[in-house]
Specification:
9-stranded antiparallel beta sheet; 4-stranded antiparallel beta sheet; 13 strands; 205 residues
Length: 205
């Protein structure tokens, strides 16, 4: 389910809900031998926010944005496989954990309607500051197989508390019921950098 930043003037709400699965394979080197493990985790994310657009000129509008991002990831219990390494007693087993993140974002966006009679197109740009509200994402607990009672744990600390993201996009209405949109987003800060893109086709019935 998805609703993007508003197309018109005035106040609007937007949001996106996602759910997914991730398959991971991991190798750990011990005494020139390799311990293997693999697992499948699942996660979900929800974003919801508010925005407002004010007219600056007949073709240009801009306004503030405010939203929150909540995400969770479930990591199952995992035990390393030492069969191919010839080692015993050094296998790690981790407990099932739930990782959480809650971020708040504040920014501004602007939209420019292209003055074209054949294609109704709109250029969009948004920039925002994003802040992580939680102190840690969660805790990871593990133990060696032969010493299950002697467990140890570590907190998954927040490494990128403050980031800046920027989005640029173009949306064109070819007919009253058909539109296409392409956009790109980059985000960075506190030692991280990432990006993504989107291509969508929209039909109205």
């Amino acid at each position: 389910m998805r609703h993007d930043f508003g197309d018109g003037l005035g106040n609007y709400l937007f949001g996106i809900a996602q759910i997914g699965m991730d398959d991971t394979e991991f190798e750990r080197e011990v005494r020139d031998s390799t311990l293997e493990s693999d697992w499948t985790s699942w996660g979900a994310a929800l974003s919801a926010g508010w925005g407002q657009s004010w007219p600056v000129s007949p073709n240009l509008s801009m306004g503030p944005l405010l939203w929150v991002d909540y995400s969770m990831s479930h990591l199952p219990a995992v035990t390393e496989n030492a069969a191919s390494s010839g080692l015993t007693g050094v296998e790690l087993q981790t407990q099932a954990e739930l990782m959480l993140s809650l971020r708040a974002a504040l920014g501004v966006h602007c939209d420019y309607q292209l003055p074209s009679e054949s294609v109704h197109g709109k250029l969009s740009f948004a920039v925002a500051w994003s802040h992580e509200l939680l102190d840690t994402y969660g805790d990871v607990a593990a133990s060696f197989v032969q010493w299950e009672r002697q467990s140890f744990s570590a907190a998954a600390d927040v490494e990128s508390r403050d980031t800046v993201l920027a989005t640029v996009g173009f949306k064109a209405h070819f007919t009253p019921s058909f539109a296409a949109k392409v956009s790109a987003t980059v985000q960075g800060g506190d030692g991280i950098f990432g990006g993504g893109g989107e291509l969508s086709l929209q039909w109205s019935f």
